[in-house]
Amino acid sequence: MRDPYLLAACLLTGLAIPASALPHLSIVLPESSRFLWDLKQGSQTIVSTKIINSVDLSLPELSGQTLQPLESSQSAPDESNIATVDSLLPELTSQGLPVPTESSLNSSAQAASLSLTSGNQLYYQRLAALKTGQIYTRSDNDNLQSLWESIKKRQLTYDDWKSLLALEARAIAQGQGANHLSILVGDSLSMWFPKEKLPAGKLWLNQGISGDTSTGVLRRLGAFSETRPDVIYIMAGINDLRKGASDETILRNYRRIVRRLRQTHPQAQVIVQSILPTRLPKISNSRIRHINAQLAQIAKQEGANYLNIYSWFTDMEGNLRPELTTDGLHLSQDGYDVWRTALQQIEYKLTQRKN
Fold it and tell me: 61 with 269: CB under 8 angstroms?
């Protein structure tokens, strides 16, 4: 059976900015670096009557920093049993995947999103994209819709999602070429990031799994160890809080995650994103703020960057703004617009630095 790991074109999306004001975007750098990510005074984007500050970004050289050895318990997971597309999609043809043409690898067309209402739909759409030699972030939805809708559905497991993400990561690793790559790592907040809202001009690999915890994220970092990302964005921890994990467990896992990523991807910028607020009474936003403060320190100590967008999402009471959420936890389309604006500013500055 031929390896089904082929890659589609470099992502090129349109630019959009939420119509609500965003507060200060702060990024904390490693202790060995100058404070180089800050608001650029006088540089602002005006949307309607609102003002969105821009980030003045200049990145440190992190690869020369000395890293502490990983703990013995952090060995890479055994991936020898990762499934193939054909084993995950037995209902589809087992013929080899088509080889992408030069034009398909450089296409600037942006596919519109299908109307997805469940994790099962998202999962099977992404599998169908792999089956046709694409990555779902650059897939042609018109060709995929009848394919994934015809697949016989079944109850999905966490291991199914891990296998899918590993397949997508291998596709990226084999087909990345000279394209720049950013990776989203986390839980459902990352998993449901709309592909059409991802910043333009590069490839994106989404490694989010719904319901995942910081422990789960730590255990599956090896799935994309062969990729060559420029940036790795991490956001996890909210499910730890929902399931009763201690602050110490979350912080310990984050430190291990950052160390692993810094060792596996020494040329990449590892960006720890603040845990977002919620509107759930059982989750204390003051506790989230306390954890975020500790995450900022861990990022500095471990040679990563910290992106604080917590306040971008809060209302006057310090809760997640109602218009930015669907259920008090997950983000609405407006919520993803806010998150996208932060990523756009960072990605733009990264591109400028490389040029």
Answer: no
**Residue in the block written with tokens 């009471």:** 317
| 46, pLDDT greater than 60 | no
Element (H, E) at 231: strand 231-235
pTM of the predicted model as reported, rounded to 2 decimal places: 0.73
Model confidence pLDDT, tens digit, residues 212-250: 999 999 999 999 999 999 999 999 999 999 999 999 999
Q: In what order do the strands lie in the sheet with 305-308?
A: 26-28, 305-308, 269-273, 231-235, 181-186, 203-208
Taking alpha carbons only, the member of 59, 62, 56, 58 closest to residue 32 is 62
Listed residue (244, 243, 302, 248) closest to 272, CA to CA: 302
What radius of gyration do the chain's Cα atoms show?
Answer: 20
**Beta bridge partners of residue 272, listed in sequence order:** 234, 306
Buried b (16+ CB within 10 A) or exposed e, 245-282: beeeebbbbbbbbbbbbbebbeebbbbbbbbbbbbbee
Q: How far apart are CA 272 and CA 254, in angstroms?
A: 9
Q: DSSP E strands: which ranges in 38-166?
A: 38-47, 50-56
> Is the distance from CB of 110 to CB of 133 less than 8 angstroms?
no
Instruction: Render pLDDT for 257-305 as a digit per residue (tens, 0 to 9).
Output: 999 999 999 999 999 999 999 999 999 999 999 999 999 999 999 999 9
Task: Name the 3-class secondary structure at 335.
Answer: helix
